[in-house]
Fold this protein.
Amino acid sequence: MLLLIAVAVGWISGIARARISGSHLRMVNVRYVWLVLVAYLPQFFAFYFQPTQQLIPNCWVSVMLVLSQSLLIFFVWANRKIEGFWLLGIGLLSNFIAIVLNGGWMPIMPKVLARMFPDGVSSSLELGKRVGFGKDVLLLKEQTNLWFLGDIFTLSGWIGYPVAFSLGDIVLSIGAFWLLFSLGRPQKTPWEVSP
């Protein structure tokens, strides 16, 4: 959710920046774009597509999540020279570390779930188990490796939708915004281009 907001705001800001400067959006040569789709597909089938999310065993889901994150990190590394990609990489790496160090799942604490679901729905969930069909595992702070990299923030009160996100998600979103905003930078005129 946070990433989608960052992409939308970054895209609009990039277009506005280009228009204000009397320019067009710059083109960048992004390598291995197809990897993003390949990396997203396992997450789609494990977390979002109802006919398959119940069929895939949890042990496979955690492996799929780690592999998916690995592919995204490779994609970002291959494009690290493009403005904004280094922030995307830091965000992805933060999430990857949290996931790998907590058994292939993103850790979330009971108090975060309580903020997301104030009606007490979260009290029926079992510690150490996957939360619903998502990517999170419910852990106490003292059970969590690098708890501060887990899903510790919520927007539930602001948007009326239960969503938790991590520090890595914030950095990732800033990177996406920065990348799209940078596309609106005026292109250099011929006399500004260095030999």
Summary: Helices lie at 2-20, 34-48, 50-53, 58-78, 85-101, 110-116, 156-159, 167-182. Confidence is low (pLDDT under 50) at residues 189-195.
